[in-house]
Amino acid sequence: EPLELCAFMRGIHSRMAPSFTEKKMALNLVCHGEVYIEADPVRFEQIIINLLDNARKYSEEGTAATMQVFKKNGHIHITVMDEGKGIPEEDQAWVFDRFYRVDKSRSKALGGSGLGLAIVKELVEAHGGKITVRSELGKGATFEIIL
Ligand code: ATP
Ligand code: MG
After folding, report:
1. Does residue 69 contact residue 9 with C-beta atoms inside 8 Å?
2. Which of 35, 78, 91, 114 is the most buried (most CB within 10 A)?
3. How far is residue 144's CA from residue 140's CA, in Å, rounded to a whole number?
4. Is the CB of 56 under 6 A from ligand 1?
5. Which one-letter DSSP state was computed for residue 93?
6. How far is ligand 1, taken at its centre, from the CA of residue 81, in Å?
7. Nearest in space to 12 (alpha carbons), one of 50, 58, 39, 38
8. ipTM over 0.85
């Protein structure tokens, strides 16, 4: 069934904002007009929440995370961007693999299993989409879904 992405993302924004405020982080959303996609709302929300969990978990206080939705060349793009520690170039190709974690000891302290992004990738592909990451170490990470 068609899902209106801006309203959907506003819902996620209001549910997730308190956990960002609690960490003294800002959560922004940029989405204009109405953008319709074919998606399972429960699974699609799981995608975005996993990305937001990471954005919060791997960032410091005082930084912002931003979700953005836009159309380009007939495709719909959804980005989740943070200003956190970032992901080293050599690890970027592996972060979607099951149980892969960049810094084993630090990650252990933060909790989690290294499954989040593997699930995200599977769910994105089940929706006919692709997900990529780009990052500059120390400056943040951007995950981009293209539908
Ligand atoms: P889980 O999501 O299962 O609780 P996790 O967060 O460690 O555990 P993933 O979400 O799959 O697992 O992420 C894999 C690894 O990629 C993380 O351990 C972390 O090292 C790195 N990573 C993921 N997202 C970010 C991000 N936004 N900024 C920096 N590093 C990230
Ligand atoms: Mg995670």
Report:
1. yes
2. 78
3. 13
4. no
5. T
6. 13
7. 50
8. yes
